[in-house]
Task: inverse folding
């Protein structure tokens, strides 16, 4: 596999872009080599799996990036080795976002790589190797796909948008709170609700104007690190469900919107989210 010329020509540029693109392509090769085939799978909990594909893709990414940046910090889903608070240069990596989709042969999954400096996002790449969709954002330079610059939708009311959500692995109170929140949004005559099982792609779809709101009650930094920058550079906003900045040191809730809808979305989410905190 190779880096497409259209991706190299994207106006979003950064000194770390070329190694990050190379790492993405190498990971894509590992994933596509195994996609649709039988493989070893381990369970990390209810409906939470890690496969040999996850591990091979992560190894390919880390090997490639460490060759260029041996002194940088790395926070990757399967190894989780970095000490975030002490890393000036930090790579946050999900080698396979949407593992359940991948294992069931559903072609909706992605590689997600983000570079942070002093805890601020600088560069983001999200790539679906089946559809060949590429999402690239660099701080202050916009959010881009091979189709051009992307921007959030301009809706100002919930009844003008589709909303996306995610379900964490919890099948108890958090699942019920999510379902109650979906019901609350439907009362606003939204155009519909989508749950596709890959948060990085959900965030990029929001940044591309396809959704007005995305929420989930628990994600990890590797799930949102790249997508967050893509949304921000597309004109949107990402916070936790209390409206605070997303942390890098542990799991968090998330509410991402086109900015115009942020306060009304938080208001709909609030009663259900706060109920989980009791």
Result:
């Amino acid at each position: 596999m190779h880096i497409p010329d259209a991706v190299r020509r994207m106006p979003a540029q950064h000194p770390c872009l070329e190694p990050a693109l190379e790492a993405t392509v190498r990971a894509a090769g590992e994933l596509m080599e195994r996609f649709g085939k039988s493989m070893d799978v381990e369970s990390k909990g209810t409906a939470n799996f890690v496969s040999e594909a996850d591990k091979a893709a992560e190894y390919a990414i880390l090997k490639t990036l460490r060759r260029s940046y041996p002194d940088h910090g790395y926070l990757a889903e399967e190894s989780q080795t970095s000490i975030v608070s002490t890393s000036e240069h930090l790579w946050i990596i999900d080698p396979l976002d949407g593992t359940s989709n991948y294992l069931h042969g559903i072609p909706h999954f992605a590689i997600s790589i983000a570079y942070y400096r002093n805890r601020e996002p600088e560069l983001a790449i999200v790539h679906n190797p089946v559809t060949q969709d590429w999402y690239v954002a660099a701080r202050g330079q916009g959010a881009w796909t091979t189709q051009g610059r992307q921007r959030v939708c301009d809706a100002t009311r919930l009844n003008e948008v589709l909303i996306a959500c995610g379900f964490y692995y919890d099948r108890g109170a958090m699942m019920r709170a999510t379902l109650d929140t979906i019901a609350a949004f439907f009362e606003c005559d939204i155009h519909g609700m989508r749950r596709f099982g890959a948060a990085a792609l959900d965030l990029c779809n929001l940044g591309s104007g396809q959704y007005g709101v995305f929420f989930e009650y628990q994600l990890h930094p590797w799930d949102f690190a790249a997508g967050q920058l893509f949304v921000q550079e597309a004109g949107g906003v990402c916070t936790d469900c209390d409206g605070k900045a997303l942390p890098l040191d542990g799991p968090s809730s998330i509410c991402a919107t086109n900015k115009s809808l942020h306060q009304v979305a938080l208001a709909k989410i609030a009663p259900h989210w706060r109920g989980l905190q009791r």
